[in-house]
Design goal:
binds glutamine, 25% helix, three-stranded mixed sheet, 29% strand, alpha/beta, seven-stranded mixed sheet
């Protein structure tokens, strides 16, 4: 029997170690996501060119600077192909800048900033302003179980509006939405890759597994 992390079986983990997950690797915090995926025992692939998108089962758009990542997507010929792949249903998780790229509408977007416009939400870039540009907090995320998820916000966006098909996974104490799911699209306004807590990555892998099955 195939076992993955900590000797767990595939059934216990909820995903197959043969899953291949791409991480958009143009700018930002992609290296840590790649390491976490490897740690979870799946195949992790850095996506820099359109051909890298072939034969992956899901993709993570990391945090970083959405304006830069967007421009680089155009330069490397990834923008249209990736947008099409998302429309066709590849499970996609946007974290922070990645969430901005995924959202259908962005307040405070830079004029002409390229976006993937795939998830039925409206976000606000740099929502927490200069005073609270970066902060950390314990979030209650019922989809991950009872233990709170320690979340790092690094000049992150807020989710201002969600479509009827969007599930809210977590909010701050003041009600600000910071984690969402729309079918096989997942979005987090913070950086789940820096907390050492693997549960969000595992959650995404189960979403990918659900599609693969
Ligand atoms: N402020 C960044 C942006 O607008 C996002 C920050 C991040 O990803 N940590 O793209």
């Amino acid at each position: 029997m195939v076992t993955g992390m900590q000797g767990q079986t595939e059934k216990e983990q909820g995903y197959n170690p043969k899953l291949r997950i791409g991480v958009l690797a143009l700018q930002g915090d992609f290296a840590v996501h790649l390491r976490m995926l490897e740690h979870l025992g799946v195949e992790a692939k850095a996506i820099k060119l359109p051909e890298h998108l072939n034969e992956i089962d899901g993709i993570i758009l990391p945090g970083g600077e959405s304006t830069t990542i967007g421009k680089l997507m155009i330069v490397y010929g990834l923008h249209e192909v990736l947008q099409k792949k998302i429309q066709e249903g590849i499970p996609t998780w946007g974290t922070c800048a990645g969430l901005i790229l995924l959202s259908k509408a962005t307040d405070n977007a830079l004029a002409g900033q390229p976006l993937l416009a795939s998830m039925n939400i409206r976000v606000r870039r740099n929502a927490f302003g200069s005073q609270r540009e970066s902060f950390e907090t314990d979030l209650s995320v019922p989809a991950l179980g009872e233990a709170p998820f320690h979340a790092f916000f690094i000049r992150g966006p807020s989710v201002e509006e969600v479509g009827p098909e969007v599930e809210v996974l977590a909010t701050l104490d003041d009600g600000t939405i910071v984690a969402v799911r729309e079918g096989t699209l997942l979005g987090t306004a913070f950086h789940p890759e820096v907390s050492g807590d693997l549960r969000f990555h595992q959650y995404f892998l189960r979403i990918v597994q659900g599609v693969k099955r």
